[in-house]
Amino acid sequence: MPTLKLIDSIKIDVYSREHPPPHFHAIYAEYEELIIIETLGTYTGKLPTPQRKKVVDWAMDKKEFLMTNFKLLNPRL
């Protein structure tokens, strides 16, 4: 599970052996949210609002980067 980015103590991870839809994990303290790459909507979980905004602001311009890494780690999907 590589950490792709660290944003003010928020880890952005993509795991192998994942499930659709393509998503990434945003982890902050005891919070975790799975965010769908294409829409940046929530798949499950919840981050505090200020941290979620930071993640979404970063991810808006990084969708291709996130999708590439998701596909590399999950070639069967």
Summarize the structure.
The protein contains two helices and five strands, in the order βββββαα. By secondary structure, it is an alpha+beta fold.
Stretches with pLDDT under 50, minimum 5 residues? none
Average pLDDT works out at 96
Question: What is the 3D shape?
Answer: globular
- Total domain modules: 1
User: Largest sheet, order of strands side by side?
Assistant: 1-2-3-4-5
Q: What class do helices, strands and sheet pairing give? A: alpha+beta
Order of helices and strands: EEEEEHH
The major β-sheet equals:
5 strands, antiparallel
How big is the Rg? 11 Å
The portion of residues assigned to helices is: 25-40%
What is the CA–CA distance across the termini? 17 Å
Strand content: 25-35%
Multimer state: single chain
Please tally the β strands and state the result.
5
Explain what you see:
This protein has 77 residues and is α+β, with helices and mostly antiparallel strands. It has two helices and five strands; from the N terminus they run βββββαα. The longest helix has 12 residues, at 49-60.
Describe how the helices and strands are arranged.
Layout: E1 3-7, E2 10-13, E3 23-28, E4 31-36, E5 42-46, H1 49-60, H2 63-73
Antiparallel strand pairs: 1-2, 2-3, 3-4, 4-5
Labels describing this entry:
alpha+beta, 77 residues, 5-stranded antiparallel beta sheet, 5 strands
